């Protein structure tokens, strides 16, 4: 096995892409952080919108859910959606405040993005991409169903919006 250390995440992503193009098995912490951020943001959003108790339980185990892990495990044992929400008053408040697309943006700005920032640049960038994709989905989707909305989010390409390193250095 070989380990490669790069100076920037951008270099790491380029190296990872080239290894994939060459068919070489590898893992990358940068790509993993981006995928994790995307999955966590989408799972949290599903918990906000869905009345499915399993979606809510999955949302509880994202960094964005406003309860501690011990409480999340205790609540995951519950079978009643109302009981879980009653024991998660901050989440219930966030959920009930969600009435418009602008409210969804505010949830990103006030709840999701500040937490994503603490996980690093790649995590934050992936979360911002999910936020952008939420707005794009709502604007572009002809059939506006929850399943289509989440399917749209899950197809988000995290690498398509990367700025080449040379352009990043120009100020």
What does this molecule look like?
With 171 residues, this protein is mostly helical. 68% of the residues lie in helices and 0% in strands. The protein has helices at 9-21, 29-49, 53-60, 69-76, 81-86, 89-97, 101-117, 121-140, 146-154, 165-169. The model is unreliable at 160-171 (pLDDT under 50).
Q: Any descriptors?
A:
single chain, 171 residues, mainly alpha, 0% strand, globular
| Helical residue percent band | 55-70%
* Rg from Cα: 18 Å
Residue windows where pLDDT falls under 50 for at least 5 positions: 160-171
Count all strands and give the number. 0
The main sheet comes to: none
Elements, N to C (H/E): HHHHHHHHHH
Give the number of helices: 10
Structural class: mainly alpha
Give a quick rundown of the structure.
This protein is mainly α. It has 10 helices and no strands.
Secondary structure blueprint with pairings:
Elements: H1 9-21, H2 29-49, H3 53-60, H4 69-76, H5 81-86, H6 89-97, H7 101-117, H8 121-140, H9 146-154, H10 165-169
Helix pairs in contact: 2-3, 2-8, 2-9, 7-8
